[in-house]
Amino acid sequence: MTFSLPPYPYDRLAGLAKLAAEHDGGMVDCSIGTPCDPPLRAVVDALASSGTERGYPASAGSAQLREAAAAWLARRFGLPDVPPSSVAACVGTKELVASVPHVLRLREPRRDTVLYPAVSYPTYAMGAELAGCRAVPVPPPPGRAGGLDLDAVASSDAERALVLWSNSPSNPTGGLGDLAAEAAWGRARGIPVFSDECYAEFTWDGPPRSVLQHGPEGVVAVHSLSKRSNLAGVRVGFYAGDGELVEFLRAVRQHAGLMVPGPAQAAGVAALADDGHVEAQRARYRERLGYLGGVLGGYGCPVAPPEGGFYLWVPVPAGRWPDAWAMAEALATDGGLLVSPGDLYGEGGAGHVRVALVQPMERLTLVGERLARVSHG
Ligand SMILES: Cc1ncc(COP(=O)(O)O)c(C=O)c1O
Question: Which is the closest atom of ligand 1 to the Cα of 224?
């Protein structure tokens, strides 16, 4: 059987975008989690002045980048003992997420299953498909938005598992998971736990957490500068943790020619060295989450604040619309607001829409004014 690719999730939003764009003042696009705020000046300067253009960059990441990442893990999560040799670079994290099953299968050819959060970033399941593996969703614990109900994993699936993906704070639900329990579960079964922590800086319920706080054995934390430092266009991420796993990934990826461009690595060093711009970004997201949550409440769509991340995960109010696509259409028509229907993140998301707070306040207030004019009796 040949492999047939599904449509790219966001390509399905074109019809809604057209509706939203009909508004005076245009569409307010909160569908994709792509940052809109400026990066740090020192980061842009580093891009232009590193002098690294001529030679090939180190696939693992420069010594400076690996040291900056280790220093940040120490500062942010109280992890003083992560050696830079257990840290390696990736070209943003999406390519890593998409390729981990393929790479791990080289290590464990008899295993063919990827366990991943049932309502999640679509690339966990896509990575399984691209590797010819089975993608097996794991539901959240009952009554929780985030995390993994590991008791729900069939032992027949666990025996075949190449990897367990965790994502806390979660895109799209904003929920937090129990990283200690996930690490212990994976260790007990010899299943590597890959913890996608790209929203860790935007943790609202308590301090940022990393799976590495529960020891490095059998776990890999995946981090990105795309969200933390508004650098999605520069493509810098890294992974860190279990020395053997990191080294295996690093070596395969070097053979495959995966390299973060030198100027981007230099930018990453500058970004990781600074925490002030992250504080400013946290304040922006908090303000926007609070504001738009209030607007949606006034429009008859109450939503709980997320435990982390910069998304509102808004339930479709019972009886008002038949599904999330109809709700998204109403938000496009009434507010010029483009959101993502929750089934883009898995069947279990079908009763929600996701709103990414990646527009400045002046754009969001435009949505507020438009929605306030609409009665929703
Ligand atoms: C949960 C999650 N993981 C990974 C990524 C990939 O980010 P990047 O490739 O820019 O590092 C995203 C981007 O939206 C995401 O939401």
Answer: 11
Report the distance separating Cα 166 and Cα 150, nearest Å. 11
Q: State whether the beta carbon of 335 lies less than 6 angstroms from ligand 1.
A: no
Helix (H/G/I), strand (E/B), else coil: 223: strand
Distance 93 CA to ligand 1 centre (A): 6
pLDDT in tens, the chain (377 residues): 677 888 787 888 999 999 999 999 999 999 999 999 999 999 999 999 999 999 999 999 999 999 999 999 999 999 998 999 999 999 999 999 999 999 999 999 999 999 999 999 999 999 999 999 999 999 999 999 999 999 999 999 999 999 999 999 999 999 999 999 999 999 999 999 999 999 999 999 999 999 999 999 999 999 999 999 999 999 999 999 999 999 999 999 999 999 999 999 999 999 999 999 999 999 999 999 999 999 999 999 999 999 999 999 999 999 999 999 999 999 999 999 999 999 999 999 999 999 999 999 999 999 999 999 996 64
Cα separation, 48 vs 263, in Å, equals 7
User: How far is ligand 1, taken at its centre, from the CA of residue 323, in Å?
Assistant: 26
Question: How many angstroms is it from 24 CA to the middle of ligand 1?
Answer: 32
Prediction pTM value: 0.97
Q: Do the beta carbons of residue 332 and residue 1 sit within 8 Å?
A: no
